[in-house]
Design goal:
Blueprint lengths: L3 E5 L5 H11 L19 H9 L3 E7 L2 E11 L2 E9 L8 H12 L4 E6 L3 H9 L3 E2 L2 H11 L4 H5 L1 E5 L9
Parallel strand pairs: 4-5
Antiparallel strand pairs: 1-2, 2-3, 3-4, 5-7, 6-7
């Protein structure tokens, strides 16, 4: 029998988080703009910077192995869901849903999620869980307010808002 344990990741999990992100992100190759793809998708130093900037990773352990991770980051007056990845071999088993529900339950703040516009499977996943795409103008304002990403990534991304989110006003 398979058992799933949701737990906060620790510094000891850094290599496993790195492995999961870069295994799972292979799905982006040939989907996101070529100028945004690199190998590895998220270098270890970038992952460390994300953690240092306040991204707290949670993971699902299945039979003692970390198989999926998702980050949460409080920024100003919202909470961002960041870096949601499940090992390729474990997709479709509810791991991402478990993590998203758990992280959503951790905060009473409005939730926002950014992802690649052409990652249609990711957009559908979040919509299935009650998130809605915001307009292009709102997306641009939100990405500039809450994320630190290059302009090219702003152009090629979308933002989805959770049910607690009211329209952005500047």
């Amino acid at each position: 029998m398979t058992t799933n344990l949701i737990r906060q990741c620790s510094p000891d999990d850094l290599d496993a988080i790195f492995g999961i992100i870069n295994d799972s992100a292979r799905a982006y190759r040939g989907v996101i703009p070529p100028d945004r793809w690199h190998e590895p998708y998220m270098p270890i130093d970038e992952l460390c910077r994300e953690i240092e900037s306040g991204v707290r990773f949670w993971g699902v352990e299945t039979d003692g192995e970390l198989v999926g991770v998702m980050g949460i980051q409080d920024v100003k007056d919202v909470t961002l869901i960041r870096h949601a990845y499940v090992r390729t071999s474990m997709r479709g088993k509810g791991i991402g849903s478990l993590l998203l529900k758990h992280l959503s339950d951790l905060t009473g703040r409005p939730l926002l999620i950014g992802t690649w516009a052409d990652a249609t499977w990711a957009v559908k996943f979040y919509e299935k869980h009650g998130f809605r795409l915001v307009s292009t103008g709102e997306k641009n304002a939100l990405l500039k307010r809450y994320w630190s990403i290059p302009e090219r990534q702003v152009e090629t991304s979308v933002v989805l808002a959770g049910s607690g989110y009211d329209r952005y006003s500047s």
